Amino acid sequence: MIKRSIHNLRTVILTNCKLDMETLDLLRLASRKHLSKLDLSGTMVLPCHAIDTPNHLENLIEPGLSQLRDLNVGGCNWVDSHTVTNIGRGLPRLVRLNLFWCDQVCFTTCLNMVRRLGHLRHLNLQHIPAVSSKDKAMLLLNNGQLESIEYSNRRRRTVLQKSC
């Protein structure tokens, strides 16, 4: 289905699916055209040797050519700091990024990514223990466009917003 409509796709939601490299290649081609929103939350990328085998999205990201504005990889055990580094380098037009439950990600990687993504306005870092409250404020200060960061505070959703 993706292959037939690759040039017209604007939003793709593949929540809780098993994806193969061919699907990521097709999504990369679609992101060159009109694909602006991609939800991969809870997915597994095949082949994988274990549920948390990292995938760095090399098959999806083509630096500078992607039109993606909204990416959700929340709940994906395969997302690690290397994956986030690739997102920061290869998806410069991102406005919204969801890293909910991506607990293999460290603060330094998030900081470098936020500095690179000049259009980023909304970042979801809920349930990422490596990023403290102070760190979240630092992230907000290191990107002039970043308006809000969602995070967990005692298991409750909290939003840190930049004041005008």
Description:
- This protein has 164 residues and is of the alpha/beta class.
- The protein has a single domain (11-161), classed as Leucine-rich repeat, LRR (right-handed beta-alpha superhelix) (Alpha-Beta Horseshoe), CATH 3.80.10.
- The protein is 26% helix and 19% strand.
- It has four helices and nine strands.
- The protein has helices at 21-33, 81-90, 107-116, 133-141, and strands at residues 11-13, 18-19, 37-39, 44-45, 70-72, 96-98, 122-124, 148-153, 156-161.
- The strands form two sheets. Strands 1-3-5-6-7-8-9 form a seven-stranded mixed sheet, with helices on one face.
- Strand 6 (96-98), helix 3 (107-116) and strand 7 (122-124) form a beta-alpha-beta unit.
- The model has no long low-confidence stretch (mean pLDDT 90).
What is the structure about, briefly put?
The chain is an alpha/beta fold and 164 residues long.
